[in-house]
Specification:
This protein has 16 helices and no strands. It is an all-alpha fold.
Length: about 300
């Protein structure tokens, strides 16, 4: 299972010009320098300069995350470095966007995607990157990734990556196969329906019958209790990964049931051997308005930890 505990909220992709244009915008850069080397040296320079100026570094990060122009005059130091436009209101230049992305990646380990950058990656990288893409940009990025690929083989590659993706990446992969690949996608999803755990998530998201035998399924197209718990946690964890509010997470599991029924459903989550189970249960403990449900979540968390300790 890929890690998905992003430090920052997921950020939409940025648009950047080619490295040659970025390198040409670096103050004092040689005109005949190798763009990759120029940009590497520039990243080190900015780290040194901004590392000692916390206010400037924070302003660069704020502008990167906001993406919108800021009122007032730009900070002179950032303008001299070519990181913001020397105008009011001001915003980051393409070089400023590139620099902000590099510094955020260095500090948090989280790389904000760049439009077009996923084309050369595998399906796992595609699903991980597309988590933060709005739909129009997602379609554009997918089209670039598909260029030169056989669509049936691409659908099979995405299906193979779904099981190892993060919950949100898995949701993206299932949605792509269901809506962007026609019959090739449907065949790939049919194969996934027979997979333990992943098949239960596909069935729940698409209203299909789960064909895996998993953990106690009755052979009637319904997952067993362990797989049902895993699927519920996975869908709730996808909302947490996306930055969903607590009430959205609660509703994804509550499904309109009354509090007593919700308490029973939450108790089931103790059976989910899922890396997101504890975080989901904590949402119910901390935010559910009904004491019966929060108590059930506390009990489920204790049981989950006990099962994990026994291996």
């Amino acid at each position: 299972m890929a890690p998905y505990d992003d430090t920052l909220p997921l950020q939409p992709p940025i648009h950047l010009p080619p490295d040659g244009e970025l390198a040409a915008a670096v103050p004092g850069a040689p005109s005949d320098g190798d763009p990759a080397q120029v940009l590497r040296a520039w990243a080190l320079t900015c780290r040194d300069v901004l590392g000692g100026e916390e206010g400037l570094l924070l302003e660069l990060v704020r502008r990167f995350l906001a993406r919108d122009p800021a009122a007032g005059e730009p900070p002179a130091a950032l303008a001299r470095l070519g990181l913001v436009r020397d105008s009011a209101p001001y915003e980051l230049t393409p070089l400023g966007l590139w620099t902000g992305r590099e510094l955020i990646a260095e500090v948090t380990g989280q790389r904000v995607p760049v439009m077009g950058s996923l084309a050369g990656g595998d399906a796992a990288a595609l699903l991980h990157g597309l988590r933060s893409y709005p739909e129009p940009e997602r379609d554009e990025e997918l089209a670039g990734w598909l260029a030169g690929r056989d669509r049936a083989a691409a659908a099979a590659e995405i299906a193979a990556a779904v099981g190892g993706a993060s919950p949100l990446g898995r949701a993206v992969g299932i949605e792509l196969l269901a809506t962007r690949f026609g019959e090739d996608g449907r065949r790939a999803l049919d194969g996934l329906l027979a997979e333990p755990r992943t098949g239960a998530v596909v069935a729940a998201r698409l209203g299909r019958d789960h064909r895996g035998d998993g953990t106690g399924g009755g052979g009637d197209g319904r997952p067993g209790s362990g797989e049902l718990a895993w699927a519920l946690v996975d869908m709730a964890a996808a909302l947490l990964e996306f930055g969903g509010e607590a009430d959205e997470v609660v509703e994804s599991v509550a499904l309109g049931l009354d509090p007593e029924e919700q308490a029973g459903t939450v108790a089931l989550l103790a059976l989910a051997d899922h890396p997101g189970a504890e975080a989901v249960l904590r949402v119910f403990i901390d935010h559910h308005p009904d004491a019966r449900v929060s108590a059930s979540a506390r009990k489920a968390l204790r049981r989950l930890r006990g099962l994990a300790a026994r291996g």
